[in-house]
Specification:
- By secondary structure, this protein is mainly alpha-helical.
- Among the domains are: 101 residues, Serine Threonine Protein Phosphatase 5, Tetratricopeptide repeat, CATH 1.25.40; 81 residues, Tetratricopeptide repeat domain (Serine Threonine Protein Phosphatase 5, Tetratricopeptide repeat).
- The chain contains 21 helices and no strands.
- It is globular and about 65 Å long.
Length: 396
């Protein structure tokens, strides 16, 4: 286990180091006169900056930059792989496949196979995803492979195995990988949070924050925990700190919901309007990342089943898994189409996913459809998974 005694490098320090490296490479790093190593290094640094900051707009810029860089290289295989990573973060799953197909020299690499397994999971091909993760772990118990399998197992309800794998993943890290350590600690804390174990979640988040200070990802989950604990204004203030540095529409929505809970309706209205405008601008520009957020917004904030259904159908056309199936079921519920809601809820439940939200919404759907016995059973299951299922959460 990594010692947290020494003062670690924090988020701000790492970002300054990345920016300094980019400054040293200069604005002309992608000139045709530059060599392959320089072009690749520059593209990687730009990706690293966007990924560490969680900046979706910058990731989209990096995606375009990669097209230019790929055209400059005789063998751009590594950049195709990087493009696949960018596309996955932006939920452009067709682009992930295209990038991997364009890089035959790296198609069988470990990172490409990890992406292929992630793609299978996103597309609801659970057996293929599990087989992919298992195969990678047999070959090498790397921290990122262990973390992927842990995430899969948690989603499918095997909490004990997931926790052990996350802990093992932490043991693979060195003192130079504190951001990765903080990310893993936050994932363990999120498991606790989604099972209603708030004290344990708080401890994990505190450890993550100590290991890599200033990380927005950790702060976001701390704010979510505070919101669930009824500390609405504190949670909103912490999220506003994040949004001041990064334009995050999803967090703007969360801030609005927190102000609603705190009884500040006018302030809530401003933040929710800001979120919706950003979601729609993104979608109108051709981006797909916020489709699922639009479903959540229209279903749970506006309670507009018609618009929720429109966006849910767009999202499920990109990737059909238990999450998008459940979202479509909930949209149909909001639209009063209870038979359709039951059909899609059943498909989501058949995945075997262990999600309190999924079962809680399914209970309401079955109640509306007139099946009270099934509703009662699903509600009991939801509360057994997370006794705090009704509390505040951020729409991730």
């Amino acid at each position: 286990m990594i010692s947290l005694v020494e003062t670690p490098e924090g988020y701000d320090t790492e970002m300054r180091r990345i920016e300094q490296a980019l400054d040293e490479m200069g604005d002309h790093a992608l000139d045709r006169s530059g060599d392959a190593e320089q072009i690749t290094r520059y593209a990687w640094r730009r990706y690293q900056k966007a990924a560490v900051a969680g900046d979706l707009k910058e990731l989209a810029t990096v995606d375009s930059l990669l097209d230019k860089a790929i055209a400059l290289l005789a063998d751009p295989s590594d950049l195709h792989l990087l493009k696949a990573n960018v596309a996955f973060k932006l939920h452009r799953l067709d682009d992930v496949r295209a990038a991997l197909s364009a890089a035959p020299l790296v198609r069988d690499s470990r990172e490409a196979r990890m992406l292929a397994a992630d793609l299978a999971f996103q597309e609801g091909r659970y057996d293929a995803a599990r087989a992919g993760y298992d195969e990678l772990i047999v070959e090498e118990r790397s921290w990122d492979g262990l973390a992927r399998l842990a995430h899969f197992l948690f989603k499918m309800g095997d909490d004990a195995s997931a926790a052990l794998l996350y802990e093992e993943a932490e043991d693979q890290l060195t003192a130079k990988q504190m951001r990765n350590f903080a990310w893993l600690e936050t994932q363990i804390g999120l498991m606790d949070f989604q099972r209603g174990r708030y004290k344990e979640a708080e401890s994990r988040y505190a450890r993550a924050d100590k290991s890599y200070p200033g990380y927005w990802f950790v702060k976001e989950h701390i704010a979510e925990l505070w919101g669930a604990q009824g500390r609405y204004l504190e949670a909103a203030a912490l999220l506003e700190d994040i949004v001041a540095c990064a334009d995050r529409a999803d967090l703007a929505q969360a801030i609005g919901e927190l102000y609603d809970l705190a009884g500040r309706e006018e302030t809530a209205k401003i933040w929710k309007g800001r979120a919706l405008a950003a979601y729609l601008r993104s979608a109108q520009s051709g981006d797909v990342h916020y489709y699922h957020h639009l479903v959540d917004y229209y279903a749970d904030v506006a309670e507009d089943g018609v618009n929720a259904t429109i966006w849910a159908l767009k999202d499920i056309a990109l990737r059909e898994n238990f999450s998008t199936q459940s979202a479509l079921a909930w949209a149909y519920f909001r639209a009063g189409r209870f038979a359709d809601a039951v059909q899609w809820s059943d498909r989501a439940l058949s995945s075997g996913a262990s999600s309190a939200k999924l079962h809680h919404q399914a209970a309401q759907i079955y109640s509306a459809a007139g099946n009270s016995s099934k509703s009662v059973a699903l509600l009991a299951l939801a509360h057994s998974i997370n006794p705090c299922v009704d509390s505040f959460h951020i729409h991730h």
